[in-house]
Amino acid sequence: MINSNQGWTSMMLRLQTGFDEKGTPQYKDKTYSRVLPSAAEDDVYAVGEALASLSTYKLHHIQLLEREDLTRI
């Protein structure tokens, strides 16, 4: 039997760093770990926007990555 426990959540910012020679957008991902699972989505988004504003790159989107820890019991 497997037991599932909610682990920490991470927030990933996808930043557009420019374009390649064909005009395709290029991206860089920056991940921030240990976001509280209980954090409100609006709050996480606001923090993501604030962090992205410190970069010279344009924010494309913010993604929440929720983790679950699985253990065999």
Report on this model:
- This protein is of the alpha+beta class and 73 residues long.
- It has one domain.
- Helix content is 16%, strand content 60%.
- It has one helix and three strands; from the N terminus they run E-E-H-E.
- The protein has one helix at residues 41-52; strands at 2-19, 25-35, 58-72.
- It has a three-stranded antiparallel sheet with strand order 2-1-3, covered by helices on one side.
- Strand 1 (2-19) and strand 2 form a beta hairpin.
- The longest helix has 12 residues, at 41-52.
- It is elongated, with a radius of gyration of 16 Å.
- The mean pLDDT is 93.
Concise account of the structure shown:
This protein is of the alpha+beta class and 73 residues long. The protein has one helix at 41-52, and strands at 2-19, 25-35, 58-72.
